[in-house]
Amino acid sequence: MRRTKIIATLGPACSDEETIQQLLTSGVDVFRLNFSHGTAAERVRLVEIIRHVATEHGKYVPIMGDIQGPKLRIGEVEGVVHLLNGATFTITTRDIVGNAGMVSTPFDNLPREVQIGHRILINDGLVELVVTAIDETKVATRVLHGGPISSRKGMNFPDTELTIPAVTEKDREDVRFAVEHQLDYIAASFIRRRSDIVELRELLQSLDGSELNVIAKLEKAQAIDALEEILEASDGVMVARGDLGVELPPEIVPIVQKKILASASRWGKFAITATQMLESMTVSSRPTRAEASDVANAIFDGSDAVMLSAETASGSYPIGAVQMMARIIMAAEQNGGLEARATREPFRQLSETDEFTDALAGAANYAAEQLEAKFIVVFTQTGFAARLMSKFRPKQPIIALTPSSWVARRMSILWGVQPFVLKEVGEFHEQIVERVDDFLLSRDIVSPGDRLVILMGSPIYQRAKTNLLRVHRVRT
Length: 476
What we know:
Blueprint: E1 5-9, H1 17-26, E2 30-34, H2 40-56, E3 63-67, E4 81-83, E5 88-92, E6 102-104, H3 110-113, E7 119-122, E8 127-134, E9 138-145, E10 147-149, E11 155-156, H4 169-180, E12 185-188, H5 194-206, E13 213-218, H6 221-225, H7 227-233, E14 236-240, H8 241-247, H9 253-267, E15 270-274, H10 289-301, E16 305-308, H11 310-313, H12 318-334, H13 352-371, E17 375-379, H14 384-390, E18 398-402, H15 405-410, E19 417-421, H16 429-442, E20 451-457, E21 466-473
Parallel strand pairs: 1-2, 1-16, 2-3, 3-12, 5-6, 12-13, 13-14, 14-15, 15-16, 17-18, 17-20, 18-19
Antiparallel strand pairs: 4-10, 5-9, 7-8, 7-11, 8-9, 20-21
Helix pairs in contact: 1-2, 1-12, 7-9, 10-12
């Protein structure tokens, strides 16, 4: 069983039912909708297809809505313009068509946000400018590193603490869509501090969507400085290496990736590694050796999930990219990945009840290893107990049983967790164990005589009441 989960971004290359079904059967665990592209009607159709295909295959497949945040861009440019090193270049808030000397931006607050000496990066950092003068509508710069620019390319501000809100009006509409269509996760761009997550949660609360998991996309330098408080406020994090590699020197990004993944483990939060993992497979049927190593190292570092972006959304080989990702993960897990985080520090900021759950999860991990159990079975009302169990990285797969299909979908992103919906389990422990045997035997998941380690609460399925560990042999 593959433990690390695969997230695939849907787009023009994989928007029909047949391709989505192939992606699912090739190994996709989570589908991502990038709200930077497409229309609401197109997203409704994709949600319907995913739900239909998942039901057909008997899987609990979550959908992640990725909101854009305040992506800052330049305006229209006449064709492709090449900026030369040392040249003077002006960015204006007036509406003009750009050329080699000046370009516009819809970001009206630019002159009030930047200061002289601050850097501005354009086109994923290919062009680097430094601010030399500022007036009410224009920012004059000198070109440090020249390169091509064209219409609507993004801007990054690695030296500037921007005051703009993390959630835009467009994001608010996209979050409303996510709640109305019962998506499972919201991935939030442009997160810089805890208050950005709090603002998003307040919006979800107002829309009756407070149960959606919030994923903080870590792509700003300020977010790394505030990592601990962001982890405390979020349900999971994404190492968004695209913009992060623009905001930070490239040689620092691998170190930051390891830091984020280790910190997420300490907080008991799931972590996703994303961007350019198999980038060459957008045009090639095979990845580079370096990309294969990159994916494997993300597994060794402790990623719960790895994400494909352009590889599936717009690439020429979306199915092949998923299949390759799955093969790399399996090879990594069979050759050392499982020992990547065999030991860990205690979780941060747990309540007393959660400390009991954590302690029982640690005991379950030890018992399963000592007894060579076939599975660890976790009963959970919210998915929390399964998340804590996952962070111990047990050698045994985790079967998570819940009465809620929504919670089952939400747990599909967790490392090593295979969720199922199981209702009417009985009132007494013996009835519950008997029900587990019937359920797992009927699906050929276990065989008579297999050993199981079971985590449950008393009474069963009561929120935040995991307080019982049982060692069990499947009846013969």
